[in-house]
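Lab manual, section 2.4: Encoding a predicted structure.

Procedure: take the sequence of the chain (325 residues), apply the prediction step described in section 2.3, and record the output as structure tokens. A sample record is shown.
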Amino acid sequence: MIERDLVIVGAGPGGMGAAISAHENGVKDIFLLERDQYLGGILNQCIHTGFGIDYFKEVLTGPEYADRFIKKINAIPEIEISARSFVTHLTKDKVLTYFKPGKIETVKAKCLIMATGCREKTREMTHIAGTRPSGIFSAGLAQKLINIEGLLPGNEVVIVGSGDIGLIMARRFTLEGAKVKAVIEIQDKTRGLLRNVVQCVTDFDIPLYFNHKILKIFGKDRVTGVSVAKVDSCMREVAGTEFKIDCDTVLISVGLIPENELIEMAGVRIDKKTNCPVSDETNKTSIPGLFVCGNAFKVYDLADSVSKDSELAGKLAAEYLRSAG
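Recorded output:
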């Protein structure tokens, strides 16, 4: 088992930003683990614009935003990258076990930054009744299928929730020739950025229903439709308001959950409501020398905010290593 000064798990905008910041603050031994074969994380499938406005003062796509950091990472020889490395176990002593193609490795970190990002909430978490046919996707999975794999998951789409990914996918499906029948939001306002409501839904004349929820999904082999009803201020169905929308695809866009099972395994105190670490200070956890940054620490609306947050995490890691000798 080897020991490294700083190990970072995750090479999305958070992990890359933390690695660069730590190096700028004097850390010379940095080991960056990424489970995908490419750096960039979720940015690689976000081909829409809107990135970099705050951080670079430019309008960039997700891959362009990631490329700025990837070039910086590749120019720093002290940052060692281990791609296709899936971390499966973490101890309170900051010992990580990870899988690489054909082997299992362990590494002990003097200091550790977790930049593991988020996963999407699922249909099961929204308690939608009905059958379990094909054609039900999380919005992020549909985004990957279209933007990375070149596949169109469906032709007539209903989107559950108005999170940013769902709003963006409403536009994406429309541009690909599909028909987005409706975006259904149970609250009285959008969960996403106002600019995404305007640019992705209003500009494309896609119906957006506030204070509505999907009651049931229909279909045997494939989705055939959904039933929708209005809800009151207590989220209860209003009698007599139910109507049906025919569709072959349902996208779930109802929020994100920070991926913090590894630090919970290590004994870090976790807020059960948010799945974020309990912390008095940004990026710190209940285990000294174990930091969390980006969406794993707190769900951000913008990748620019993740980059700023990760800069602080890198600086804190450098300070910890100096104080630890």
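Check your result against the sample. Residues 122-252 form a domain with the FAD/NAD(P)-binding domain fold (CATH 3.50.50.60).
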